[in-house]
């Protein structure tokens, strides 16, 4: 692992883009051989088990009953509404379009924060960053059709 902060930052970005970016293609491939929600459930279960074992091995205390309940609620909502919606939609749309739609999520978050009572107007820098990111995702997704 590089010690220099800048190298670590670039390595983190590379990992984020590679892992997150390949998610939608992996979903598309996986749902060709198994039902979408079963695939997503298995994925969440495996990821959760890995994280649980890792956390416990590094000294984290066992979750309380209240924490288990909260995690179950969040997990169910993510499976049904969040990632589950993407998995279900990828039966009908390309993985590039799915990635593009998810890539628009920060735009919606900033817009809703701005429009809520007492919300903050995004700065020029935030607007520029959002548009740059969205244009980048759109360019990448547009190349998938060719």
Mean pLDDT: 87
| Rg estimate, integer Å | 18 Å
Low-confidence stretches: none
Q: What is the element string, with H for helices and E for strands? A: HHHHHH
Query: What is the number of beta strands?
Result: 0
The biggest beta sheet reads: none
Strand content: under 5%
Tell me the overall shape.
globular
Q: Provide the structure class.
A: mainly alpha
Please report the number of helical segments: 6
Helix content: over 70%
- How far is the first residue's CA from the last residue's CA? 37 Å
Structural features:
single chain; 146 residues; mainly alpha; 77% helix; globular
Structure description:
- Helices cover 77% and strands 0% of the residues.
- It is an all-alpha fold and 146 residues long.
- The protein has a domain at 5-103.
- α1 packs across α4, α2 (36-57) runs antiparallel to α3 (65-89) and α4 (95-103) runs antiparallel to α6.
- The mean pLDDT is 87.
List the topology elements.
Elements: H1 5-30, H2 36-57, H3 65-89, H4 95-103, H5 105-115, H6 124-143
Describe the structure in brief.
The protein is an all-alpha fold and 146 residues long. Helices cover 77% and strands 0% of the residues.
